[in-house]
């Protein structure tokens, strides 16, 4: 317990060290999350457009 | 090289690479955190605050590396009109901007206890702030035109002109009298820091580089899909 408290205290520099690490983590995780969200959104739109187009060309062929 | 400029050809290579770089990023950053936060010793001058360096320095390297990659990708896009070159630059810009923000913020958090100030307008800090503005300017410009190709050209030219800032940042600590300390890792006579501190730094840098490539592949796939969507929609309007 003692050593854990000591670890988190960081020799008195905790208010500088932990925000540095936490901020970096938040920025990188947010970037990754937003990039994955955009990818999923674009791939879904593309798939929808392609099935729609295939459906329409199918109609033209049958008519 | 021309083969990789074809988006579908690129995806065939990039998709299998993605899980490898993603795992490499997770493992290296995990190891880097363990070495940097627990294993590495205190610095005799900086005390525990030296641990901020294990994020700050790799982030600074990435800020420069991503910008250099962006400038090279923009050059190939302008000279050979590789569509992928432009998309790679566009996909890189937000990643580089994020690393630059991390570099500036962690530098500030280190500067307050060690220098007694959050910020100083010295050559190193000012030139890195300009780098952030270049990233932001690129991202703003790329979507500023109704006709995408005009935005692409304007943003690519900005990326190339801004590349002059990269050597200025690197050598700012030698050319001017800066509060920021000079290089201690990338120098002609070899690294001037102890291996117990060099290793966490290098492993973290590997992790950040792998993270960059993983996110770059994700964003590039997204950009390629967006370009295909645009083409289909244009086809629908004219068809």
Attribute tags:
heterodimer, A: 63 residues, mainly alpha, 90% helix, rod-shaped, B: 239 residues, 0% strand
Describe the structure.
The complex is a heterodimer of chains A (63) and B (239). With 63 residues, chain A is mainly alpha-helical. Chain A has helices at 2-9, 14-62. Chain A has one domain (2-62). The mean pLDDT of chain A is 89. With 239 residues, chain B is an all-alpha fold. Chain B has one domain (20-43, 51-182, 193-238). Chain B has helices at residues 7-39, 53-79, 83-115, 123-142, 148-162, 165-175, 195-238. In chain B, helix 3 packs antiparallel against helix 7 (195-238). Chain B is globular, with a radius of gyration of 20 Å. Chain B starts with 6 loop residues before the first helix and ends with a helix. The model of chain B has no long low-confidence stretch (mean pLDDT 93).
Concise structural overview:
Chain A is built from two helices and no strands. By secondary structure, chain A is mainly α.
C-alpha-based Rg of chain B, rounded: 20 Å
Strand portion of chain A: under 5%
Helix/sheet category of chain A? mainly alpha
Largest interface: A-B, 27 and 37 residues
Order of helices and strands of chain A: HH
Helical region count of chain A?
2
The string of secondary-structure elements of chain B, in order, is HHHHHHH
Q: What is the average of the pLDDT values of chain A? A: 89
Q: Report the sheet with the most strands of chain A, covering strand number, pairing sense and barrel closure.
A: none
| Main sheet properties of chain B | none
Work out the strand percent of chain B.
under 5%
Characterize the overall form of chain B: globular
Measured on Cα atoms, how large is the radius of gyration of chain A?
25 Å
Low-confidence stretches of chain A: none
What is the domain total for the residues of chain B?
1
| Range of helix content of chain A | over 70%
Assembly state of the chains shown: heterodimer
Strand elements of chain B, count: 0
